[in-house]
C-alpha cells in the first residue's frame, strides 16, 4: 500500500487543512477581539483622566484656571510604561497648557456631544487619543474648552498580544487534539477497507469462494461485485474443467485402441528404419496416454473436492497404495526403492482418492525425471504436520524453478521432458487440504526431496 | 576643537560671573583617568562635593574612564537638556537631578533611552527603566539649637505653623526655605506638600508668609543663612545637605516631621543623545548597586531606605515601615507638577501669600 495516495493520508490532509485555516481564522478573530478589549479597557482610563482634567478647570476673574490633577496622570500611570501627552485648548482656539504641537486629526467640535477616541501618531510614537469638551458659561468667558489627551500604546499592545498568545495556545492545543482524534477516527473507519484488502491479498490464487468478511454498508456493493465476479469465474473454471475431463475421457478410448493396434504390428517385417519409427510412434502414444490419464486425474480431483466431504484418513495407507500403484513391476532393477512409515497412524483430513492421485504423481515424477539408482518414499510426522516425502538421487530441480513447476504444463516449454500436470495436481491437492507442496535441495547424504505437507488431524470429537 | 572651546567658554563664565547669576550654579570638575579609554560627561544638579566620593569610587572600579562632572541648577539643567533633545545635540551622557519631575518630563517627551538594570530598585523609583531614583532623601527641618529653645522645636508641619503663629515676633524673618520660583526641587517639594496635606500646607504657607520667611535659591544657601545666624529654622531642606551641615556644625539639628515626611529620590536619566550610553548605564548600575548605595549612605547622602537614621537625627525609627515617609513616586503623576499652567498658578499663589510685607519676594 502506498501511503502517499492512501485514503487515510488524503483524508487526514484535508482535515488538517480545514483545521489549520479554521485555527488561523480563530486566532485572527481573537486578535481583533483582544485589540478591541484592550482599547476598550484603556480608553476608559483615558476618558476618566480627560474627564478629571475638565472637571478641575474653573473660571476665575474671566480667565480659565487650570488645575492639572495629579490623580488624572496617576490614572493614566496605571499603564506603567506609557507616555502621556496632552493639550488644553481654550475658547479662542489658543493652547492653554500642554504640548503645543499635539494636533487632533479630527475636528475638535466633534467631541461636543460625546468624547472622541482616535488612534494616531505623535512624534515617533503610535498614540491613542481622546478629545473631551467642556462648555464654559461665565458672563466674562463662554465657549468650548477642549482637552486633547493622548497616551502611547505599549500597554494596549502588550495586553493584546498577551490575550492573543493565550488564545493561540488554546487554539493550537485544541487543533492538535482534534487532529489526533480525527486520525484515530479515520484509522478506525478505514479498518474494514484495510481488512478487506488484506483478505484479498492473502487469498490463494485457486480460491474462488465468496469473500467472507464483515464490511460496513458502504463497502458491501464493492464486496458484492467481487463475489459476483468470483462466482462467475468459478463457474467458467468448472465448465472448462469438465470439458477437459470429458475430452480426456473421450480421447482415452481411441488411444487405448491405438496402443493395442501398435502392439499388434509385427516389426520383424519392417526395415531398421521402419522399426525405429515405430518405436518412436509407440513412445509418443504412451506419452499421450499418460498425459490424458493425468488430465483425467486432475479433473477427477477437482470434481471430488467439489462434491466429496473431507474425512479423517491414515496417510500411511494412502501412501502405501500410491507407492504400489506408481512403481511399475517393470521398473529398472538397478533402481533401489524403499518405503518407510511410522508404526502409529498418521491421521489427516482429506479425500483418499485425491491424495493418492497427488502422491502417485509425485512418485511418478521422481521415477520419470529423477531417480537414477535410488528412490525413497517416506511418511513421517514433524511439528504437528504430516509429511509425505519422496527422495531420489537425481539432479533435482534448481531452486529458481520451484515456483513455476507447480504451474500446469510449466516445464514443457523449457525442457524436452514433459512433466506435465504432476506437480500441479499435487500442489492443488495439498493446498485444498490446507497444506503445501514443498521441495528440499540435496544436501549431505540426502538427495533431492519433494514433500507433500498436510496438517495433522486433531482427534477431537466435536 | 569646538567642544574644547565651548568648555573653555563655560569655564570662563564660571570664573567671571558671580555665583547664582549665570546658567551654571556650581562648577565643573574632571576626574582624569591615568590612561583614558572613555570619557563620561555627567551633568548633575547635585553638589560636586556630594558626588565626589561616588565618582571617585566608580573610577576605582573603572580606572580607564575619565569622568567629567558639571554641576547645574535644576532648572538650568532641564532647559539645557530640553534644548539638546529638540536639536538632537549631544551635551551630556548622563543627567542627575533632584528635580525628578523634570526628568520624568524629559522621558515622557522621548528624550531618554531605557537602561535595563540588574540591580534592585524600588517600584516607586523607576519609570519605564528610563528614570531611576538612586538616593533616599527625606525633606527635613533644620534648626539651630542655640537659637531655638527645646520647647519650640517643631516636630510636624502643624507644629511649625503653630510656632510661627504664636511666636510670630520671635521668629519673624528667622525662618528660611526654598524660593520655589527659582528652585525646581523647592517647587516639587512644595507641590507635593500641597497634595499630601492640603490643609496643613495652606496653614503653613500662610504662617511662613506672615513670618516674612527668607527664601533662597538652593539648599546650601538656606543652610548658609542658618549657619551664619540670619535664620533659626530652615524648612524643607533635603536631608543629605542638612546632615552635611550638621556634621560641619553640630549645633544645627535635624527633625524629620512626624506627621509625614516627603522622601525624594534623586533621579538619573540617560539622554537619547548620549554618546556613551553603555558607559552611562554602567555608572547608573554602580549608583544603584549595593556598593554604590553604601558609599552614598556613608559619604554623600547619609540616609537610606533600609538602614537606620544617621546619628543625631530626630525622627521616627523607620520612615518606610511607619508609613510616615511618603516617597515621591517617579512616574507620570509628576507630569501634573510639570504642567506650565499648573506651575504658573502654583508659584503665583505661593508668591502672593509669601509676599505679604516680605522684602525678599518681589512681584514678577
TrEMBL record, chain A:
Gene3D superfamilies hit by this protein:
1.10.287.130, Histidine kinase-like ATPase, C-terminal domain (3.30.565.10)
One Pfam short name = HATPase_c
Which ranges does the record mark as transmembrane?
12-34, 169-190
Q: Listed GO cellular component terms?
A: plasma membrane
InterPro entries per record: 2CSK_N, HAMP_dom, HATPase_C_sf, HATPase_dom, His_kinase_dom, HisK_dim/P_dom, HisK_dim/P_sf, Sig_transdc_His_kin-like_C
| Domain Histidine kinase span(s) in chain numbering | 246-458
Per its record, the protein catalyses: ATP + protein L-histidine = ADP + protein N-phospho-L-histidine
Annotated SMART domains: HATPase_c, HisKA
UniProt entry tagged with the keyword Manganese: no
Q: Could you tell me which residue ranges the HAMP domain spans? A: 187-238
Q: One MF term in GO for this entry?
A: phosphorelay sensor kinase activity
Instruction: Recite the UniProt keywords alphabetically.
Output: Kinase, Membrane, Phosphoprotein, Transferase, Transmembrane, Transmembrane helix, Two-component regulatory system
- Main location group: membrane
Give EC number(s), comma-separated.
2.7.13.3
Compartments where located: Membrane
* PANTHER family in UniProt: SENSOR HISTIDINE KINASE YKOH (PTHR45436), SENSOR PROTEIN QSEC (PTHR45436:SF1)
Protein's UniProt name: histidine kinase
Automatic annotation (TrEMBL), chain B:
User: What do the Gene Ontology cellular component annotations say?
Assistant: outer membrane-bounded periplasmic space
Which keywords annotate this record?
Signal
Which species does this protein come from? Shinella kummerowiae
Protein known as: Extracellular solute-binding protein
Annotated signal sequence range = 1-23
Q: Which domain of life is it from?
A: Bacteria
The protein's matches in SUPFAM superfamilies, at most eight in alphabetical order, are given as: Periplasmic binding protein-like II
Q: Which Pfam families match?
A: SBP_bac_6 (PF13343)
